[in-house]
Amino acid sequence: MAEILIVEDEISINELVKRNLQLVGHRCTSAFDGKNAINQMQEHNFDLIILDIMLPEIDGFEVFKEVDKTPTIFLTARSSLGDRIKGFSLGADDYLTKPFEMLELLARVEAVLRRTQKTRSCFINGSVKIDFNSRQVFYLEKLVECTPKEYELLEVLVNNRNIALSRERLLELVWGYDYEGDTRTIDVHIQKLRKKLGWENVIKTVYKLGYRLEVGL
Fold first, then answer.
1. b/e burial code for range 174-188 (CB count within 10 A of at least 16 → b)
2. Spatial CA neighbour of 169 closest among 213, 131, 210
3. What class, spelled out in words, does domain 3-115 have in CATH?
4. pLDDT tens per residue, range 87-123
5. What phi and psi values does residue 161 have, to the nearest 5 degrees?
6. Which pTM was predicted?
7. Angstrom distance (rounded) from CA 172 to CA 161
8. What's the pLDDT tens digit per position in 157-195?
9. Number of Cβ atoms within 10 Å of the Cβ of 136
């Protein structure tokens, strides 16, 4: 769980990002202009900042100059190479352009938090423990043998916990866009994970869509 500041002046986008980050367990604070963002950074400690560039009062590049070593992802409609280079040269950890897919943003947030060690390297739910560094899974303190694809599917479910994922999206995220198999592959792997981890009631089937890893916040 991380403390994240979302700096975005479009209310609908700010709320969408906040809602999805909260679903996966993070605590979020919203700022809608550059001046308020700086005030929030001075008053609170954050593990990550998601920062738009085109902001009222003070633009995102100027806001970023006030950031004190806090990992930052630029999330902006400014997609030119010059803007991207400027963002990275200032020291941004990542740069994502609008329009964006929420799952990609969640993945990038997770990657930055792990890289900067702002989030735990383990996920624990009941009798299951997942060590992301060693890629090992334990159930009732015993090592569970998982195939590479079972582990990758499990990691995708954990990183997007409490979010419904279609079978098609799970195939793309785990097997890749060029995979020629069908969605029954997902069903087979889900059943194996449920059995191995005792997660029959944790990995929920979403009717006519796919699956959701349901975890209390």
1. bbeeeeeeeeebbee
2. 210
3. alpha beta
4. 999 999 999 999 999 999 999 998 899 888 766 678 9
5. -60, 145
6. 0.76
7. 17
8. 998 999 999 999 999 889 886 777 788 899 999 999 999
9. 15
| pLDDT for residue 183 | 81
CA dihedral (4, 84, 110, 188) positive or negative: positive
Question: What is residue 96's DSSP assignment?
Answer: E
Say if domain 122-213 classifies as CATH 1.10.10.10: yes
Return the domain boundaries, the chain.
3-115, 122-213
Tokens 């060590």 belong to: 131
- The C-alpha atoms of residue 158 and residue 136 are separated, in whole angstroms, by 14
What are phi and psi for residue 165, nearest 5 degrees? Answer: -120, 130
**The pLDDT of residue 69:** 87
